Amino acid sequence: MPYPAVDPEIQHLLDTADTGVFPVYGLDDVLADPQRYALLRDLPDTPTDERVKVEDRYIPGPGGQLRLRLYRPVTDEILPVILYLHGGAYTYGSPEAEEGRSLQYAAEAEAVVVSVDYRLAPEHPFPAATDDAYAALEWAAEHAAEIGADPQRIAVAGGSAGGNLAAATALRARDLGGPHITFQSLTYPGVDTTATSQSLRTADNLPVLNRRALLLALQHYTGGQNLHPYASPLHADDLSNLPPTFITVAEIDPLRDEGRAYADRLTAAGTTTELIQLPGAVHGFDLLFPQAAISQRNLKDQVRALRDALHQ
Question: What pTM was computed for the model?
Fold first, then answer.
């Protein structure tokens, strides 16, 4: 089944993109070369927002010192927490690389965003990133008063690989009786390591993320197929008793069908789930091209879902 056309504005931005070292076409070649994906780990210049204070915290982590980047609205109110896991095919990325999203979540969802600088593959394969994410969740709950936050109102959120880690963190908290998670927001999440979906099988020539790039990312992260539920949440035996969930999938994305399948399984397990599929959107559209109309609409939807869940 062929993919539909890319949204015209997104297509124009793809055709004229100057995104630095990140290739809007050919990510597979980058992920095949350690010297090239190492360049994607450099910290970019970051935006600012006078409504939000930004600071780094360093906590003991499973692999040593773990950096958390905190975004707190300038207010004396006790706020909810959004634990944020950045994307990057498990091999690159940083809190700074997605600072625009974290600032918007903090200011407009009115929450303390705790963004996790988790360990990256292939140097640190599964379960390193999930261990770091869960350690950050426990720290945020235990130190909520210190950061002016409410430990009973915690959401987990992330996109792509970060969506995988957010989903895994929610599963782990449920399994271990850990900190209470109120909500999860998963944006074009990778939740299936089997790499067998229809949207993946036909994704050879897509922009931003193609089939070979995704297979390389999974090889770096899990060594190949891995059905542990914290690596492949779609294959968890039981998806009951998870927090209400908001899932965004892009129509022109190898990860589209697994995000939809996860929403279906959550719904079948009794979890309140909202699914939005964005026509004409490609993987990472909102991060690469936040100025696009489709990006702005969806970011507002993400903020709306988080704010409504955390401020009931």
Answer: 0.97
